[in-house]
Amino acid sequence: MSIDRKDCETRDRNDPIAFARERFLLPDAVIYLDGNSLGALPKATIERLKHAVDDEWGKGLIRSWNQADWISLPRKLGARIAALLGAKPDEIVAADSTSVNLFKLLSAMVSHVSKVSPSRRVVLSEAGNFPTDLYIAQGILKAYGDRFELKLVDATEIEAALGPDVAVALLTQVDYRTGRLHDMAHVNKVAQRNGIPIIWDLSHSAGAVPIDLAGSGAQLAVGCGYKYLNGGPGAPAFLYVEGSLQSQLVSPLTGWFGHAAPFDFINEYEPAASIDRFQCGTPSVLAMQALDCGLQTFQGVAMADVRAKSLALSDLFWQLMENHCPDFGFSCVSPRNRSIRGSQLSFAHEQAYAVMQALIERGVIGDFRQPNLLRFGFTPLYTRYVDVWDAVMVLRDVMEQSAWQSTRFQQRNKVT
Amino acid sequence: MSIDRKDCETRDRNDPIAFARERFLLPDAVIYLDGNSLGALPKATIERLKHAVDDEWGKGLIRSWNQADWISLPRKLGARIAALLGAKPDEIVAADSTSVNLFKLLSAMVSHVSKVSPSRRVVLSEAGNFPTDLYIAQGILKAYGDRFELKLVDATEIEAALGPDVAVALLTQVDYRTGRLHDMAHVNKVAQRNGIPIIWDLSHSAGAVPIDLAGSGAQLAVGCGYKYLNGGPGAPAFLYVEGSLQSQLVSPLTGWFGHAAPFDFINEYEPAASIDRFQCGTPSVLAMQALDCGLQTFQGVAMADVRAKSLALSDLFWQLMENHCPDFGFSCVSPRNRSIRGSQLSFAHEQAYAVMQALIERGVIGDFRQPNLLRFGFTPLYTRYVDVWDAVMVLRDVMEQSAWQSTRFQQRNKVT
To answer: Considering CB atoms only, which of B49, B97, B267 is closest to A282?
Structure first.
């Protein structure tokens, strides 16, 4: 099937969520395919931060903790995220970083399981999981000596590995390199049958694919605010604890914002009865305000439309790569099967780093991931079909013309 | 000695750091005596955040991690804080919250001591320490069962309590309620004689009193970015690890930003060789930029001048209280002795909450702390002598006229 730029323009005209692009400021002469790493700037963020700085901080000063309700931001944002992810408003709180939040939940679970289930000694995760997830798990388990083993299996082997020896599983819904998507409801069902709690890392799926935490039986999750949620560089992350579990788990990070009565200033820690117990120190108000604006870019946007467009964009990219770049040594490592595909495509290439640098110089921004991957993320709120067209055309041009092509590369490419 | 407003104006004219006030935006009709809780807004922050949002994030997008050097912010800010606190540039990093940073250092130390010094079972801190410090300690020690005991003694008894049973001490240099100041060099000397590491919480002293971490033999410290350092609400905190200790301590929060090679994305955690090992997740770039501007308000300001003015301001406040408010039932709980006084005064009063509310309504902003304290903080960069005069005059007026005075209060006050 032949597609031209006009077809892409037509698709953009018919896009039911095309209006969302107007909520973002995107630089001229840039095609941004890295919103899976850092979301674009929402227009509303500019005014909001100006207001938060000039008026709330500058004029309100300390009074703004109450008058501007800064104190409620972690829960207010949590409720917004919950609406997006199919959780109850009091099951999510915005706080700290993904790594710190993962530490809270995994520590709490490991501690819990170590007491109630002595025979469960495996903490299960995926080979190729986002490294910080594995690092955090390693750090926690170190304190337990030989008690637990961190076992990494391929994504396709997770289900089979969810056996009676597993204490807790730590899974990332969408793989950061391949974009492979887990069927959360199905995996949860298998895990629950075996009494295994799963902590889901939603960093590469929240805001990108429809998520129904309640409907899919999820108990625990963390996620990132600065990718598809458009919260800005290093935005606060979030964590989810299903309601009935909240009273059973205590965060190891027992800071004052997790206290039942933080402003009573009593000496003894007593965890808040609610999800607030998973807060720790004073949250960054400016970062929270930016995240709030990021979350509001989803207002009035159906996640089903986001998903449909996401798949259409990646299908288009893949097809255009086949049509226009078949002979340059690219090999897609993302799932062809739409039901297990997230919102990105990754292509292996032996000169991946140099190719991505050349693309970025031409204004097409994806990213490079070790050892040999070019990643292209599709953020349906602001990525257009014509962007995909233009990106592939630039890539073709780069491959045909650019000086980065070493003789060695050309020779090897001819052989294969 | 009688003082009038003219005298205060003269002092302001002769103030060698009066120029620093121009670096802040302060609202009209407000006398701000709560910079010990949330520092005022530096003018430079407005432009910096606008640039960071519009240009670095909006236009630079993901490229700004390198092009705008976002990646170096935690260390760049750490070096600035180090210059202020007498540490080497590579001994401090800006990261997370004070609570989280305290967790990192105290966990690391407790874990270390638990292995090398089985006879040391006391974690020593102060009765009345800022609660989050005690909460974090309680959370950490819980995991060790009976192995450690958290022992709290009065500030004046710390020295005597630094005995051979102490594993680690957790001290706050300036008490958040009374403003009492520890002699850090002296306490460090006593502790080192007994082989006891101290973790200093500098939240209420950094930027308020001269600190010489190297010269005073400090090994470990944490501190807050949003008080005297003017980094904005919930600003990133910082932590200090003396150079020779860095390789011996591993943070329990083993996130990717603490990895030796975070962007190699390898599966095994390997802590960075430097202070970077105490970073964890992705830092908030916007919050870091604001903190950077806060730190720069100290440029060209000698901490000796800050200290001299701080003491002169609190002396003045105290004296004016004695001259003009002697009969209203206030009793100062802060040290008269300047050598152990931080940069605040706290007055006990049986109607403290109501009095502070009345003051705030009149534009004099201090704060109330349980159970009965009015706190007034003096931030020499932007507090003037006339502010102190005006504040006490408003307080006198409030006490003489305001409707909050209940009959009960008046009666009881007559008796005492």
So the answer is: B97
User: What fold, for B69-296?
Assistant: Aspartate Aminotransferase; domain 2 (3.40.640)
Residue B111 predicted with pLDDT over 80 = yes
- For residue B243, give both structure tokens: 């150079």
- pLDDT tens digits, A277-303: 999 999 999 999 999 999 999 999 999
DSSP letter (8 states) at residue B401: H
Residue A113: which H helix or E strand, with range?
A: helix A98-116
Gap between the Cα atoms of A91 and A78, Å rounded = 8
Is B4 one of the catalytic residues? no
Residue A312 and residue A310: Cα distance in Å, rounded? 5
**Which residue do the tokens 């097809």 mark?**
A319
Q: Which of residues 78-137 of A touch B (CB under 8 A)?
A: 96-100, 103, 111, 127-128, 131-132, 134-136
What's the token pair of residue B215?
A: 């010269």
The ipTM (two decimal places) reads: 0.96
Q: Which helix (H) or strand (E) holds A374?
A: strand A373-377
B142/A103 Cα distance (integer angstroms): 16
CATH 3.90.1150.10 intervals, chain A: 5-43+302-415
CB contact under 8 A, B233 and A266: no
Residue A166's DSSP bridge partners are A122
Write out the CATH class of domain B5-42+302-415.
alpha beta
pTM for the full predicted model: 0.96
The amino acid present at A236, given as its one-letter code, is P
Rounded to 10 deg, the angle between the B43-50 and A43-50 helix axes is 180
